[in-house]
Write a structure and sequence with these properties.
Blueprint (H helix, E strand, L loop, with lengths): L19 H10 L11 E7 L7 E7 L8 E5 L9 H12 L3 E5 L21 H13 L8 E6 L1 H12 L6 E7 L5 H8 L5 H16 L7 H9 L3 H12 L5 H8 L12 E4 L10 H4 L9 E4 L18 H14 L2
Protein backbone atom coordinates (compact mmCIF):
# COMPACT_ATOMS: atom_id res chain seq x y z
CA UNK A 1 0.00 0.00 0.00
CA UNK A 2 1.22 3.51 -0.79
CA UNK A 3 2.15 5.53 2.32
CA UNK A 4 -0.73 7.63 3.63
CA UNK A 5 1.73 10.33 4.70
CA UNK A 6 2.80 11.04 1.12
CA UNK A 7 1.16 14.09 -0.44
CA UNK A 8 2.31 15.08 -3.96
CA UNK A 9 3.92 18.48 -4.41
CA UNK A 10 3.16 20.87 -7.26
CA UNK A 11 5.44 21.01 -10.29
CA UNK A 12 6.23 24.41 -11.79
CA UNK A 13 8.59 24.65 -14.75
CA UNK A 14 11.87 26.54 -14.34
CA UNK A 15 12.58 29.30 -16.85
CA UNK A 16 13.33 29.11 -19.72
CA UNK A 17 12.19 25.48 -20.00
CA UNK A 18 8.51 26.07 -20.62
CA UNK A 19 6.48 23.50 -22.56
CA UNK A 20 6.86 19.77 -23.02
CA UNK A 21 9.44 19.97 -25.79
CA UNK A 22 11.84 22.29 -23.98
CA UNK A 23 11.47 20.26 -20.79
CA UNK A 24 12.39 17.16 -22.80
CA UNK A 25 15.23 18.78 -24.76
CA UNK A 26 16.82 20.32 -21.68
CA UNK A 27 18.67 17.04 -21.09
CA UNK A 28 20.21 17.32 -24.57
CA UNK A 29 20.68 21.07 -24.96
CA UNK A 30 22.34 21.76 -21.63
CA UNK A 31 24.38 18.91 -20.19
CA UNK A 32 26.62 20.13 -17.39
CA UNK A 33 29.20 17.65 -16.15
CA UNK A 34 27.90 15.48 -13.31
CA UNK A 35 30.76 14.80 -10.92
CA UNK A 36 30.42 11.43 -9.21
CA UNK A 37 34.08 11.30 -8.15
CA UNK A 38 33.29 11.92 -4.47
CA UNK A 39 31.71 8.46 -4.50
CA UNK A 40 34.26 6.02 -5.98
CA UNK A 41 32.72 3.46 -8.29
CA UNK A 42 33.11 -0.29 -8.60
CA UNK A 43 32.51 -1.95 -11.96
CA UNK A 44 30.45 -5.12 -11.73
CA UNK A 45 29.56 -7.74 -14.31
CA UNK A 46 26.23 -9.36 -13.50
CA UNK A 47 25.52 -12.72 -15.11
CA UNK A 48 22.27 -13.47 -16.90
CA UNK A 49 20.78 -16.87 -16.08
CA UNK A 50 19.28 -17.81 -19.45
CA UNK A 51 22.28 -19.72 -20.78
CA UNK A 52 23.29 -16.94 -23.19
CA UNK A 53 26.52 -16.09 -21.38
CA UNK A 54 25.48 -12.42 -21.48
CA UNK A 55 26.57 -10.16 -18.62
CA UNK A 56 25.30 -6.74 -17.63
CA UNK A 57 27.79 -4.09 -16.62
CA UNK A 58 26.85 -1.91 -13.66
CA UNK A 59 28.57 0.84 -11.67
CA UNK A 60 28.18 0.66 -7.89
CA UNK A 61 28.74 3.71 -5.70
CA UNK A 62 28.65 4.03 -1.95
CA UNK A 63 29.29 1.79 1.03
CA UNK A 64 28.34 -1.83 1.44
CA UNK A 65 26.26 -2.34 3.43
CA UNK A 66 24.45 0.84 2.39
CA UNK A 67 23.52 3.30 5.13
CA UNK A 68 19.96 3.96 3.95
CA UNK A 69 19.47 1.39 1.20
CA UNK A 70 20.52 0.68 -2.37
CA UNK A 71 18.91 2.63 -5.21
CA UNK A 72 19.01 0.84 -8.57
CA UNK A 73 18.65 3.12 -11.61
CA UNK A 74 17.32 1.64 -14.89
CA UNK A 75 17.80 3.75 -18.04
CA UNK A 76 15.51 4.18 -21.02
CA UNK A 77 15.65 3.44 -24.75
CA UNK A 78 19.15 3.99 -26.22
CA UNK A 79 20.36 5.12 -22.80
CA UNK A 80 23.05 3.77 -20.48
CA UNK A 81 24.80 4.43 -17.15
CA UNK A 82 26.11 7.76 -18.46
CA UNK A 83 22.82 9.20 -19.65
CA UNK A 84 22.50 12.67 -18.16
CA UNK A 85 19.38 11.85 -16.15
CA UNK A 86 21.00 8.71 -14.72
CA UNK A 87 24.12 10.56 -13.56
CA UNK A 88 22.06 13.44 -12.18
CA UNK A 89 19.82 11.06 -10.23
CA UNK A 90 22.82 9.09 -8.98
CA UNK A 91 24.37 12.28 -7.57
CA UNK A 92 21.15 13.20 -5.83
CA UNK A 93 20.70 9.79 -4.20
CA UNK A 94 24.34 9.51 -3.19
CA UNK A 95 24.23 12.96 -1.65
CA UNK A 96 21.19 11.87 0.36
CA UNK A 97 23.12 8.94 1.86
CA UNK A 98 22.01 6.00 -0.31
CA UNK A 99 24.25 3.65 -2.25
CA UNK A 100 23.53 3.61 -5.98
CA UNK A 101 23.77 1.06 -8.77
CA UNK A 102 23.77 2.43 -12.35
CA UNK A 103 22.66 -0.57 -14.39
CA UNK A 104 23.29 -0.97 -18.12
CA UNK A 105 20.57 -3.13 -19.64
CA UNK A 106 21.44 -6.04 -21.92
CA UNK A 107 23.31 -4.74 -24.95
CA UNK A 108 23.35 -1.10 -23.76
CA UNK A 109 26.44 1.04 -23.27
CA UNK A 110 29.29 -0.85 -21.55
CA UNK A 111 27.14 -4.02 -21.53
CA UNK A 112 27.17 -4.19 -25.34
CA UNK A 113 30.53 -5.97 -25.77
CA UNK A 114 29.42 -8.62 -23.26
CA UNK A 115 25.97 -9.33 -24.71
CA UNK A 116 24.83 -11.22 -27.78
CA UNK A 117 21.21 -10.29 -27.10
CA UNK A 118 19.58 -6.90 -26.42
CA UNK A 119 17.09 -5.39 -24.02
CA UNK A 120 13.50 -4.56 -24.91
CA UNK A 121 10.54 -2.98 -23.11
CA UNK A 122 9.36 -6.23 -21.53
CA UNK A 123 12.65 -7.91 -20.66
CA UNK A 124 12.12 -7.64 -16.91
CA UNK A 125 13.78 -11.01 -16.27
CA UNK A 126 17.10 -9.28 -16.92
CA UNK A 127 16.53 -7.00 -13.94
CA UNK A 128 15.65 -10.05 -11.86
CA UNK A 129 18.83 -11.86 -12.93
CA UNK A 130 20.93 -8.77 -12.31
CA UNK A 131 19.63 -8.51 -8.75
CA UNK A 132 20.23 -12.23 -8.14
CA UNK A 133 23.82 -11.85 -9.34
CA UNK A 134 24.26 -8.70 -7.29
CA UNK A 135 23.17 -10.48 -4.12
CA UNK A 136 25.62 -13.30 -4.83
CA UNK A 137 28.37 -10.71 -5.31
CA UNK A 138 27.68 -9.00 -1.98
CA UNK A 139 24.63 -9.91 0.13
CA UNK A 140 25.25 -6.92 2.41
CA UNK A 141 24.09 -4.61 -0.38
CA UNK A 142 20.53 -5.71 0.38
CA UNK A 143 20.76 -5.20 4.16
CA UNK A 144 18.83 -1.90 4.18
CA UNK A 145 16.50 -2.82 1.35
CA UNK A 146 16.22 -1.93 -2.33
CA UNK A 147 14.71 1.10 -4.03
CA UNK A 148 14.17 0.81 -7.79
CA UNK A 149 13.83 3.73 -10.21
CA UNK A 150 13.12 3.30 -13.93
CA UNK A 151 13.02 5.89 -16.70
CA UNK A 152 11.00 5.73 -19.93
CA UNK A 153 11.38 2.24 -21.50
CA UNK A 154 13.31 1.16 -18.39
CA UNK A 155 10.31 2.20 -16.30
CA UNK A 156 7.99 0.01 -18.38
CA UNK A 157 10.39 -2.89 -17.80
CA UNK A 158 10.52 -2.07 -14.09
CA UNK A 159 6.73 -2.06 -13.70
CA UNK A 160 6.55 -5.54 -15.18
CA UNK A 161 9.30 -6.69 -12.82
CA UNK A 162 7.39 -5.28 -9.85
CA UNK A 163 4.32 -7.30 -10.83
CA UNK A 164 6.11 -10.58 -11.52
CA UNK A 165 9.39 -10.84 -9.60
CA UNK A 166 9.81 -8.15 -6.95
CA UNK A 167 8.44 -10.30 -4.11
CA UNK A 168 11.67 -12.34 -4.19
CA UNK A 169 13.74 -9.29 -3.17
CA UNK A 170 13.70 -6.80 -0.27
CA UNK A 171 12.23 -3.99 -2.38
CA UNK A 172 10.87 -1.22 -0.17
CA UNK A 173 9.72 1.17 -2.87
CA UNK A 174 9.87 1.92 -6.57
CA UNK A 175 9.44 4.82 -8.96
CA UNK A 176 8.43 4.96 -12.62
CA UNK A 177 9.33 8.12 -14.59
CA UNK A 178 7.70 8.72 -17.99
CA UNK A 179 6.96 5.06 -18.73
CA UNK A 180 5.37 4.10 -22.10
CA UNK A 181 2.77 1.94 -20.36
CA UNK A 182 0.91 1.50 -23.68
CA UNK A 183 3.67 0.69 -26.18
CA UNK A 184 1.38 0.91 -29.19
CA UNK A 185 0.18 4.36 -28.20
CA UNK A 186 3.78 5.45 -27.61
CA UNK A 187 4.80 4.13 -31.04
CA UNK A 188 2.04 6.11 -32.71
CA UNK A 189 2.96 9.27 -30.82
CA UNK A 190 6.71 9.11 -31.53
CA UNK A 191 5.96 8.58 -35.23
CA UNK A 192 3.59 11.55 -35.43
CA UNK A 193 4.70 14.25 -37.86
CA UNK A 194 5.42 16.79 -35.14
CA UNK A 195 7.89 14.34 -33.57
CA UNK A 196 9.95 13.55 -36.67
CA UNK A 197 13.19 14.87 -35.09
CA UNK A 198 12.72 12.72 -31.98
CA UNK A 199 11.78 9.75 -34.14
CA UNK A 200 14.85 10.05 -36.36
CA UNK A 201 17.13 10.45 -33.34
CA UNK A 202 15.79 7.34 -31.63
CA UNK A 203 15.84 5.21 -34.78
CA UNK A 204 19.45 6.15 -35.54
CA UNK A 205 20.50 5.29 -32.01
CA UNK A 206 18.60 1.98 -32.11
CA UNK A 207 20.46 1.03 -35.29
CA UNK A 208 23.80 1.95 -33.72
CA UNK A 209 23.12 -0.29 -30.73
CA UNK A 210 22.06 -3.22 -32.90
CA UNK A 211 25.06 -2.94 -35.22
CA UNK A 212 27.52 -2.77 -32.32
CA UNK A 213 27.05 -6.48 -31.54
CA UNK A 214 30.22 -8.23 -30.30
CA UNK A 215 29.82 -10.94 -32.95
CA UNK A 216 29.15 -10.53 -36.67
CA UNK A 217 25.47 -10.24 -37.51
CA UNK A 218 23.88 -12.51 -40.06
CA UNK A 219 23.22 -10.82 -43.38
CA UNK A 220 19.47 -11.23 -42.80
CA UNK A 221 19.65 -9.53 -39.42
CA UNK A 222 21.87 -6.72 -40.70
CA UNK A 223 19.49 -6.08 -43.60
CA UNK A 224 16.54 -5.99 -41.20
CA UNK A 225 18.32 -3.38 -39.06
CA UNK A 226 19.37 -1.23 -42.00
CA UNK A 227 16.07 -1.41 -43.90
CA UNK A 228 13.84 -0.49 -40.94
CA UNK A 229 12.62 2.98 -41.82
CA UNK A 230 10.65 3.61 -38.63
CA UNK A 231 10.54 2.62 -34.98
CA UNK A 232 7.56 0.40 -35.81
CA UNK A 233 9.47 -1.34 -38.61
CA UNK A 234 12.46 -1.82 -36.30
CA UNK A 235 10.26 -3.38 -33.62
CA UNK A 236 8.56 -5.55 -36.25
CA UNK A 237 11.67 -6.63 -38.21
CA UNK A 238 14.35 -6.69 -35.50
CA UNK A 239 13.04 -6.71 -31.93
CA UNK A 240 10.07 -9.05 -32.41
CA UNK A 241 11.76 -11.91 -34.30
CA UNK A 242 14.84 -11.77 -32.06
CA UNK A 243 12.70 -12.23 -28.95
CA UNK A 244 10.00 -14.69 -29.94
CA UNK A 245 7.18 -12.27 -30.74
CA UNK A 246 4.96 -12.69 -33.78
CA UNK A 247 5.56 -9.07 -34.76
CA UNK A 248 5.49 -5.54 -33.40
CA UNK A 249 1.80 -5.72 -32.46
CA UNK A 250 2.37 -8.89 -30.45
CA UNK A 251 5.41 -7.32 -28.77
CA UNK A 252 3.46 -4.22 -27.79
CA UNK A 253 0.46 -6.17 -26.53
CA UNK A 254 2.48 -8.59 -24.40
CA UNK A 255 4.98 -6.14 -22.95
CA UNK A 256 3.00 -2.96 -22.23
CA UNK A 257 3.14 -2.24 -18.50
CA UNK A 258 -0.55 -1.32 -18.31
CA UNK A 259 -1.47 -5.02 -18.25
CA UNK A 260 0.80 -5.62 -15.23
CA UNK A 261 -0.24 -2.63 -13.09
CA UNK A 262 -3.02 -4.45 -11.19
CA UNK A 263 -0.53 -7.05 -9.89
CA UNK A 264 1.98 -4.62 -8.35
CA UNK A 265 1.92 -4.97 -4.56
CA UNK A 266 4.84 -2.75 -3.51
CA UNK A 267 4.61 1.02 -2.88
CA UNK A 268 5.27 2.60 -6.27
CA UNK A 269 5.13 6.21 -7.41
CA UNK A 270 4.26 6.65 -11.07
CA UNK A 271 5.29 10.04 -12.49
CA UNK A 272 4.18 11.28 -15.89
CA UNK A 273 3.70 14.72 -17.44
CA UNK A 274 0.48 15.59 -19.24
CA UNK A 275 2.54 17.42 -21.90
CA UNK A 276 5.01 14.58 -22.52
CA UNK A 277 5.63 14.83 -26.30
CA UNK A 278 6.65 11.15 -26.58
CA UNK A 279 4.02 9.33 -24.53
CA UNK A 280 0.31 10.28 -24.59
CA UNK A 281 -1.20 11.02 -21.20
CA UNK A 282 -4.39 9.24 -22.31
CA UNK A 283 -2.51 5.97 -21.76
CA UNK A 284 -2.54 6.82 -18.06
CA UNK A 285 -6.10 8.10 -17.98
CA UNK A 286 -7.43 4.83 -19.35
CA UNK A 287 -6.27 2.89 -16.29
CA UNK A 288 -8.30 2.95 -13.08
CA UNK A 289 -5.57 3.74 -10.55
CA UNK A 290 -7.98 3.42 -7.65
CA UNK A 291 -8.05 -0.34 -8.14
CA UNK A 292 -4.50 -0.72 -6.81
CA UNK A 293 -3.65 1.03 -3.54
CA UNK A 294 0.06 0.30 -3.97
CA UNK A 295 0.28 2.76 -6.88
CA UNK A 296 0.50 6.54 -6.52
CA UNK A 297 -0.01 8.29 -9.86
CA UNK A 298 1.31 11.85 -9.97
CA UNK A 299 0.61 13.51 -13.33
CA UNK A 300 1.31 17.25 -13.38
CA UNK A 301 0.23 19.25 -16.45
CA UNK A 302 3.86 19.98 -17.40
CA UNK A 303 7.27 18.32 -17.26
CA UNK A 304 7.95 16.81 -20.68
CA UNK A 305 9.58 13.41 -21.14
CA UNK A 306 12.02 12.59 -18.29
CA UNK A 307 12.29 16.34 -17.87
CA UNK A 308 10.66 17.87 -14.80
CA UNK A 309 13.11 20.76 -14.56
CA UNK A 310 11.29 22.65 -11.85
CA UNK A 311 11.22 26.07 -10.28
CA UNK A 312 13.27 26.57 -7.13
CA UNK A 313 15.90 23.87 -7.58
CA UNK A 314 18.28 22.50 -10.19
CA UNK A 315 17.56 19.02 -8.84
CA UNK A 316 14.86 17.59 -11.09
CA UNK A 317 11.38 17.50 -9.61
CA UNK A 318 11.07 13.78 -10.34
CA UNK A 319 14.14 13.11 -8.16
CA UNK A 320 12.83 15.33 -5.38
CA UNK A 321 9.36 13.79 -5.55
CA UNK A 322 10.72 10.25 -5.59
CA UNK A 323 12.87 11.11 -2.58
CA UNK A 324 9.82 12.38 -0.70
CA UNK A 325 7.89 9.23 -1.60
CA UNK A 326 10.66 6.87 -0.47
CA UNK A 327 11.03 8.84 2.77
CA UNK A 328 7.31 8.38 3.41
CA UNK A 329 7.60 4.66 2.63
CA UNK A 330 10.38 4.19 5.18
CA UNK A 331 9.06 6.70 7.73
CA UNK A 332 12.27 8.73 7.60
Amino acid sequence: MAPASYVPSTFRARAPWFGGDLQTLRNFLRRPAIDLNPWPERRLELAMHDGSGDRLVAKLHGPAPPKLGLVVLVHGLTGCEDSFYIRASARQWLGAGYSVLRLNLRGAGPSRPLCIQQYHAGRSADLRDALVSLEVHDPSLFDQGLFLVGYSLGANLLLRFLAEDAAAFPVKGAASVSAPIDLKAAQRRIMAGRNWVYHRYLLDRMREEALAAPVPLSEKHRQAVMSAGSVYAFDDQVVAPANGFAGAEDYYARCSAQRFLPQIALPTIVLHADDDPWIPADSYRRFDWSQNEALSLVMPPAGGHVGFHGHGSKVTWHDRETGRFFAAVTGR
